[in-house]
Specification:
38% of the residues lie in helices and 11% in strands. It is globular. The chain has a seven-stranded mixed β-sheet, sandwiched between helices. Strands 9-12-11 form a three-stranded antiparallel β-sheet. Strands 1-10 form a two-stranded parallel ribbon. The longest helix has 28 residues.
Length: 478
């Protein structure tokens, strides 16, 4: 019998009462004979049990509710007035969410091919928790081909799950204890805060970059952050390519992170979700051959047992909505721990099969990656040419599909400017969404995505410039 029927006096679906959950009003309770016998009988201290009066939340949930996550706030505003060229041309254009829309035709054509996506009887059954052996083998081959690791990956180094966010939380569960912390170069991808804090209860400690280089973090800055931490620090988490800067770290900087971690008994988690969208290197040299190991200064990992990775299909394969992420680790101990609890992050068997069929066509896959990077480079060039023409500074990019632009010229508070941009029909992400330092130099920067068709990008830029011009005109005519 449904619990809502059995416990009708405290049913939250009853239409007999005027309940206002937004204000957390207590649910009326009039049945004094109602008892929960099983709980009373198991109460060793003999205390009486009082039924719940109204919805109850854990301390964790209450803490999460009290926090403002700006990336989510922006998305909610956009979805309530989403731009469409025909049905809602005055809606808000979303250049704040990191989605690649440049390859919809190619990817949809591939996925909708009956040879790729036909569902079989086998896929109506439960699949392996970490992903099928075939999928993990295909992912390992893909990453070996394009990342050129010194020690080749195999399926034992791979666990597939429902997005990099849940998988980062999985790392949080197996590598940290609740209340621990990690060092992260700031400003940093705002999702790190929610992905690992909301579930695993692990907290970020930002590390300041050098003034003259946003992707340079000194050993002294890492030491200072570690020394001043108010929680036990267990690791370093970085995004490479970096988010929000849209650039890759140098090999020397990556080695500095790894060597610092090894010398202090920390581990490193590197989020490489944009790892196959390093368009500057892929497009500028040997574009037909892609990346080769000779093109880069490569090193063995200082501490491979404590260096772990994340990658996914959302960005490099334009499949955000499928939510497929991958953990990468050489540690058998860590992989065993992840596989013990990855039943919480399983992917659907039909999606597993679709990805196997796509990746097994290596010629199509490699051509898709190259063509995607060509398009990203073209769109980046179009955006930066426009920004240059309008005198808007930015951090030069080489990867991903966004850059960090400087809007100090507006001479108003960053949050107020963000609201005016939304009112003007364009959503881009403010620096506060990336936990920037509360200072003049770090605020009033915005991340803008450029992986959209040129017509939509041009309209977005028109709206951006119009907002800035309106602000300037109003300031001059007060």
């Amino acid at each position: 019998m449904p619990i809502a029927t059995t416990l009708e006096p405290v049913s939250v679906i009853s239409d007999k009462r005027n309940l206002k959950y937004n204000n957390f009003e207590k649910i009326p309770y009039n049945n004094e004979n109602f008892k929960v016998t099983s709980v009373q009988n198991n109460n060793k201290k003999g205390k009486s049990f009082t039924p719940l009066n109204g919805p109850k939340l854990s301390k964790r949930a209450l803490e999460i509710q009290n926090e403002e996550f700006l990336l989510s706030k922006g998305i909610i505003i956009v979805r309530n007035n989403k731009y469409h060229p025909e049905s809602n041309p005055n809606g808000i254009i979303n250049l704040g969410t990191a989605e690649n829309k440049l390859n919809n035709v190619e990817m949809l054509s591939k996925i909708n091919d009956p040879k790729i996506s036909t569902v079989t009887a086998e896929q109506l059954l439960y699949g392996p928790n970490p992903g099928s052996n075939r999928l993990r083998e295909e992912i390992a081959k893909l990453l070996n081909r394009h990342f050129n690791p010194k020690v080749l990956l195999n399926k034992e180094n791979i666990c597939v799950g429902n997005g990099c966010g849940p998988l980062l939380n999985l790392y949080g569960e197996v590598l940290f204890d609740a209340g621990d912390a990690f060092l992260v170069p700031g400003p940093f991808y705002g999702g790190f805060e929610a992905d690992i804090k909301y579930g695993a209860r692990v907290y970020p400690i930002p590390v300041q970059h050098e003034e003259d280089d946003c992707l340079k973090v000194s050993e002294e800055s890492l030491e200072k952050a570690l020394r001043n931490a108010n929680r036990p620090v267990k690791g370093i988490i970085i995004a490479n390519p970096n988010n929000p800067f849209g650039r890759c770290y140098s090999a020397e900087q990556l080695l500095l992170f790894c060597n610092f971690a090894k010398s202090h008994g920390l581990f490193v988690i590197c989020d490489e979700i944009y790892g196959l969208s390093t368009w500057k290197d892929i497009v500028s040299e040997n574009i037909e051959e892609g990346k080769s190991i000779e093109d880069y200064e490569c090193h063995y990992l200082p501490d491979p047992e404590n260096t772990h990775g994340l990658w996914g299909f959302s960005k490099d394969f334009c499949l955000n909505g499928l939510r497929i992420g991958v953990t990468i680790s050489y540690s058998k101990t860590v992989m065993a721990a992840i596989q013990k609890i990855c039943f919480l992050t399983c992917i659907p068997t039909n999606i597993d099969n679709i990805l196997v069929n796509i990746l097994s066509d290596e010629e199509w896959t490699d051509n898709f990656i190259i063509n995607n990077n060509r398009k990203l480079y073209k769109s980046y060039s179009h955006l930066t040419n426009s920004l240059n023409a309008h005198g808007i500074p930015y951090v030069k990019g080489d990867s991903g599909f966004f850059i960090y632009i400087d809007l100090h010229q507006a001479r108003i508070d960053e949050y107020d400017l963000w609201m005016k941009l939304l009112e003007g029909g364009i959503y881009i992400s403010p620096s506060q969404a990336f936990f920037s330092k509360d200072s003049y130099s770090e605020r009033n920067w915005f991340r803008i995505c450029f992986a959209v068709e040129q017509k939509e990008l041009d309209l977005s830029l028109e709206r951006l410039y119009k907002v800035l011009e309106t602000i300037k005109y109003n300031q001059q005519n007060k």
